[in-house]
Specification:
globular; 9 strands; alpha/beta; 255 residues; six-stranded mixed β-sheet
Length: 255
């Protein structure tokens, strides 16, 4: 259901349930968690790309699987929902940057996967939508991340209508970073990933990612204290010392 491949310092995690339009079920979620954990702990990996085979990124939750879940107890359904929540949190808080490469539709839980990634590139023919309300379900888990990403007003427009929007509309809302021609999606994503790998310290990226997710929940005084602590700790890292020495000596930094 999920494959993992490597190209230099980039790890490609690929949704590969093409016959089901890469719809999510418990097995697929578990495989994704395993593959992300492997990539996060692999020292050779600098950037992770989440992509999909077929003409759909992900159609969301497998409806047959959802029907089966209706027979579960509340406790069983909480455990199942918590598994997807853990996957989203793992991607969002993980120590390495994750780029979503979205072709075709990214719907409901599939759209959630794209939402929690650090960057999202999409083909011009891609569609995005949180369609849960149209089948009597709710977009509970992704709502936290979407509201944080694009704000409450815009999130309401998407979550309360279940409307599908184009890649261009998603970019205008701040959901995704770049829209590219379908034939150039993989090339553009790899090029972007390689630029980051060549120009940025992995340790600094990890610490900056932590800053970005932590700051919004803090008041001003706490935020400045936290920032000062993070700043001081960063100065003591080997990457910072290496970067400053290279800059002062007018040398190209090899990350």
């Amino acid at each position: 259901m999920v494959t993992i491949n490597y190209k230099s310092s980039i790890c490609f995690i690929t949704l590969n349930r093409v016959d089901k339009k890469n719809a999510l079920n418990d097995e697929m979620v578990d495989e994704l968690k395993q593959q992300f954990q492997q990539a996060f702990t692999d020292e050779k990996v600098k950037i992770i790309v989440l992509e999909a085979n077929g003409d759909v990124f992900s159609a969301g939750a497998d409806l047959a699987y959802l029907k089966k879940l209706q027979e579960n107890t509340l406790a069983e359904n909480v455990a199942d929902s918590s598994s997807l929540a853990a996957l989203y949190q793992m991607i969002y808080e993980g120590p390495k940057l994750v780029i979503a490469a979205v072709q075709g539709h990214a719907i409901a839980g599939g759209c959630g996967l794209a939402t929690v990634c650090d960057f999202c590139y999409a083909s011009s023919d891609a569609k995005f939508g949180y369609t849960e309300v149209k089948i009597g379900f709710i977009p509970a888990i992704v709502s936290f991340y979407l509201i944080r990403k694009i704000g409450e007003t815009r999130a309401k427009e998407l979550l309360l209508t279940g409307v599908l929007i184009s890649a261009e509309e998603a970019q205008n809302l701040g959901m995704i970073n770049k829209v590219v021609a379908p034939t150039k999606l993989k090339f553009e994503v790899e090029q972007f990933a390689n630029q980051i790998i060549a120009n940025c310290s992995s340790e600094a990226l990890n610490r900056t990612k932590e800053l970005i997710r932590t700051m919004p929940s803090l008041d001003t005084n706490t935020a400045m204290e936290y920032a000062a602590q993070m700043n001081a700790k960063a100065r003591a890292t080997e990457d910072c010392k290496k970067g400053i020495n290279a800059f002062l000596n007018k040398e190209k930094i090899q990350w």
